[in-house]
Amino acid sequence: MDKNFSDHKSISDKLALWCLCVDNKNLSSLPDIFAPDIEWDYGGGTADIGLENVINRIKTHLLEDSFCGATQHSLSNTRIDIDGDNAESHAYFCAAHAGTGEFEGKTLVQWGIYHDFWQRTESGWRINKRNYTITISDGPLEIVYANVPMTMWKEDDKRNLSSE
After folding, report:
1. Which residues on adjacent β-strands are paired with residue 131?
2. Calpha distance 19→14 (Å, rounded)
């Protein structure tokens, strides 16, 4: 198999695995996708450093005490540029989050872009930096952002619902 094609497929497969992990609410494969020292920039001045912090944020928003039930994360218009052992990808996402509890019957849908920087490791490709941009949100933000500790978001970030 052509090495360039193999690299593209490997990175595409990891992006698809990301969607499966969050949709199945099984985060055990995240170390196969992200570097341990991942830098994840959520925009709005909020960022996490380290996979443990990223996993904690995902659990807070999609599991634990959230109002988030079933989710569907889909990717499109994926572009991958590879330069030796480094790569950069852009993928549009659409993420639908079904509400639970007081948000039963409501859905938060968000569209945006994952802009990822990858590095080839001995264990395969890993994302070491992600810029996460939400371009459109439709529905109650509380489905994923309510019950989140105020310290998880910068004070002026619109996702920090505790600042309202």
Report:
1. 41, 115
2. 9
